[in-house]
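Hi L.,

As promised, 6,7-dimethyl-8-ribityllumazine synthase:
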Amino acid sequence: MASTEDRIALAPPRFDDAPRILIVAAPFYRDIADMLIAGARAALDAAGAKHELAEVPGALEIPIAIRLAERRFSAFVALGCVIRGETTHYETVCNDSSRALTLLGVERGLCLGNGILTVETHAQAVVRADPACMNKGGGAAEAALHLLALKRRFAAPATGKGDIRLAGDPVIGGV
């Protein structure tokens, strides 16, 4: 079983205006998706974010849905689960969905958290998805919020007085 004992977590950012976040989930394994969604919603609610849910058939469709919605939301949370099967399709889905999400962030500047689980067994997925255990849905939502806070911080005009915001700054303004 995976351990979380030695991991640290950044304090969730706070916003002076509620960001609009799109959760894109692939409910191929409905029980896992529901846990991931619950964790993401709880994290977004705690941050005061407004959020919507869009479901797509599988993990490969998640990046496409995000790309289609990029102008309507401040950040995105990608949620799904890929469990290794008997063929090489597992590697294709894992690699291509991850690469596409990374490219959306790097090339398009989208703020997104990747909560697509890639596991060997259903039991591993349950531990990672369960909000009471590893809460990877909540972690993906918090990652999206942290990237959004950075995007807003770096988009703010410089005052010329060396006013670089550091971790722990109380509020991030809107973009």
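The chain has five helices and four strands.

Thanks again for sending the construct details.

K.
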